[in-house]
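re: ur question from earlier - yeah i can do the single chain one, its not a big deal. heres the input i used so u can compare w yours
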Amino acid sequence: MQIPPRVLTVAGSDSGGGAGIQADLKTMLALGVHGMSVLTAVTAQNSLGVQGAWELPVEAVRTQYRSVVDDIGVQAVKTGMLASAPLVETVAELLAGTDAPVVVDPVGVSKHGDPLLAASALDSVRTKLLPVATVATPNLDEVTQLTGVVVEDESGMRRAADAVLGFGPRWALIKGGHLAGDAVDLLTDGSEEHWLRAPRHDNRHTHGTGCTLASAVASGLAQGMGVPEAVRAAKEYVTGAIAAGFPLGGGIGPVDHAWRFRSQSLRR
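and the output i got, formated as tokens:
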């Protein structure tokens, strides 16, 4: 019996199902890996925003992590919402002792602008979490939050990548989706550059894009892809998921994690 690659997400819950742990596990299933989870926080969240958030105790996070890694093992780990400095530092310590690639999505705010990381935790992200990352995947708002660099064009993405790499991740994936024009991302390790471009889809239902991309990258790494190959495959998957995003509730709906399955069923 063939065992699929195993990927662990360490992140918060999104009760609306579009982002967070829920988006991570849907992405992992869609991409053929076995997803596992360490819950760091619970949010009351829907298409309109985040109505409440409650972080879990450090010991609950640590015990979940050890329970999974010590028995089942992992081929890649992805981090998302970590909420506070103690949780960031605890997770960074656990990751440092795990022999697997790590994708860090340095979640700072939700799609609706609600804070998901305490301001006091930013320094811990810079000095503890980013140094253990194989790939860091900040969007432009998170770049500014972490580095102070304000990106207004593609040349600014290079400055942003240099600033993020200065904190120690092996690769930086700067997501330029907030710029005008095509959706362009920059992946670099400081010596080689990969520009990833995709047409921008006229669809406001993009909740969960960042979680989905980071989980897709982790899934590719767990399957043995190199970083550039994993990021390109993840970009293709997310672009399709954005194109197929659908409305839910009265606000911003999610990307469609099952878009490939739905398109296949339509062709039958």
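The radius of gyration is 17 Å. not sure if urs matches, ping me
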